[in-house]
Amino acid sequence: MTSASIPRAMRGQPAFAFSVALIAMVASIGVFGGLLAPQDPFLIQSQLVNQGSSASHWLGTDEFGRDLLSRLLIGVQPTLIVAIGATAIAAVFGTMFGIAGAHGRPVTQFIIMRCVDIMLSFPPILLALLAVGFWQSGVLSLIVVIGVVYIPQFARVAHSATLQVSRMEFMEAERAMGASTARVIFNAILPNILAPLVVQATLTVAAAILLESGLSFLGLGIVPPQPSWGQMIGTARGYLAQNPMYVIWPSLLLGVTILAINVAGDRLRDILDPRLRQE
Predict the structure, then answer these.
(1) How many Å apart are CA 7 and CA 41, to the nearest integer?
(2) pTM score, whole prediction
(3) Dihedral sign, CA of 120, 124, 127, 131?
(4) Which has more confidence, 269 or 113?
(5) How many domains, in total, are found in the chain?
(6) Which residues span the domain enclosing 218?
């Protein structure tokens, strides 16, 4: 894929272009959210509890009188850190296990892939709940737990792609020349399986955001007073009668962000897969 592939793919694809722009905006807010926040997101104002939109609080306030807009802006950062960190862990270890499961010794292949199958038989939220229950809540714990939960998905993708690459002629040439295992993996296999792994990474980021939000919604994720969108949704449930917009804003932002990542990932698959590429 050339550097011009993605801009060219945006032509005639307004949904993809809008999704990429929205993802870039969310990422920018994740980096600069603290600077963009109009007010102190941790300032408690008991006289302004559960207020609606006003000139001083554009999106209203929460149950402690804290500015909702400011908390939404800084709530992006921990969610993105968890999603990107977990995806990196899952990608690195999942790819290693997937390649070993397709290119290793028969016993190694059997053990790795059966373990992957066992983990895939459980819903990610169930595995995450079991793991988080034994760990202290926080960003680091979520990164590790969610990363481990999504290792099997990457392992399956890497395994399938490696099997396809292993049947190609250049792999036979590498073996005939007596190339070492490390050379075969890093020079022949890995560069040729990156495309499906990149697509899987985009899907995993969206899934990790959703899983982190679900855990924070249940009180097992980001530790207060640090906000995250999922945590805000969980807290806002108890104040629907007093301030219904309290739950609507984070829910809307979470849903739109996940939708944008999934749309971008779906189009990215078309760009990277020559069988689906549209000229």
Answers:
(1) 37
(2) 0.88
(3) positive
(4) 113
(5) 1
(6) 11-35+60-272
